[in-house]
Amino acid sequence: MPEVPPDAARTLFTDNPAIVDPHLTQIESFSRDERGLLVNFTAGTPDCFGVHLITQETADAVTIELRGGTPPESIGRMCIALAVHGTAEVVLQAPLGSRQVQAVQ
C-alpha cells in the first residue's frame, strides 16, 4: 500500500463499529499523523456511509481491515450517489517506525 502525504481536502470519517451491512472496503493509500495513520479510500457521503477499522499490530507490520456500511441513523434515508475521497484515523499502540502497513483485501 503506498504512503502519501496527508491530504486536508479529504473528508474525515470517524470509526463506527455499529455500521449496518458491513463489507470490505479497499484502502487506497495511507499517511502518517501524530497518533498513528490516516487510511485513504473512496466512499459515499458521511451522512449515508460509515466505516469501521479493525487493526492488528505486530513488531513487523500493521494490518488494517476497513469495513464500509450504513450508519444506523441513516437506515431508510434518501441518499445521493456521490463519490467522496475519505480518510479515517488509525490510532496505533506504538509508533509506526519502520513497520510495514498492510491492508486486508
Textual characterization of the structure:
With 105 residues, this protein is mainly β. It has one domain. Helices cover 0% and strands 48% of the residues. It is built from no helices and eight strands. The protein has strands spanning 11-13, 20-24, 29-32, 36-43, 50-57, 61-70, 84-91, 100-103. The strands form two sheets. A four-stranded mixed beta sheet has the order 1-7-4-3, with no helix packed on it. Strands 2, 5, 6 and 8 form a four-stranded mixed beta sheet that branches. It is globular. The N and C termini lie close together (11 Å).
Question: How do the helices and strands line up, and which of them pair or pack?
Answer:
Layout: E1 11-13, E2 20-24, E3 29-32, E4 36-43, E5 50-57, E6 61-70, E7 84-91, E8 100-103
Order of helices and strands: EEEEEEEE
> How many domains is the backbone divided into?
1
Low-pLDDT sequence parts:
none
Judged by helices, strands and strand pairing, the structural class is mainly beta
The whole-angstrom Rg is: 14 Å
Proportion of residues in β-strands: over 45%
- The helical percent reads under 10%
Q: How many strands appear in the DSSP assignment? A: 8
What's the total helix number?
A: 0
Instruction: Output the strand order for the largest sheet.
Output: 1-7-4-3
Mean pLDDT: 95
